[in-house]
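B., you asked whether I could sanity-check this one before it goes into the benchmark set. Here's the sequence:
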Amino acid sequence: MTDSHTSAAAARHRRVTTPLGQYLLAADGEALTGIWRKGQSRSPGPERLGAEAPEDDPLLREAEAQLLDYLAGQRSDFDLPLAPRGTEFQRAVWDLLRAIPRGDTTTYGSIARELGRPRAAQAVGAAVGSNPLSIVVPCHRVVGADGTPTGYAGGIGTKLALLRLEGAASRDTMGG
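And here's what the prediction gave me:
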């Protein structure tokens, strides 16, 4: 995952309806820069989204197809060029999120320890919360120290649905 992007095409976006609600996919150049659930906290402003993409935009069309396949259980990971905007620390956290296997979860404290900063669990939480590439960079796989699902910018119901889809949520965690 890099932080650079090319100028082959300007910033642009597309709205996608999924089984989990409407999502906004954004790209700049040849890389995906964001996936946000409609109404989620920390949604980007119009200056970051650019214009509505044409229907035949190859990158956003592929991102939409992969997202829908993932949510339908027909894909287990993503193969998209990514260029999230963030600090060096945030990008380090997001890289670790991408390493969490499907069906597994980890904690904020575990990520902080993996970064060599065992007291930085809150900073990790802030970086996880500002992840611009929800689902593709699986911040939903991070749970509280006691294993319970904690805050999620797209809503706790969405987080639980994603964990169920991946087989990571237990009946106890989900109140069932």
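One thing to flag: The mean pLDDT is 88. Otherwise nothing jumped out at me.
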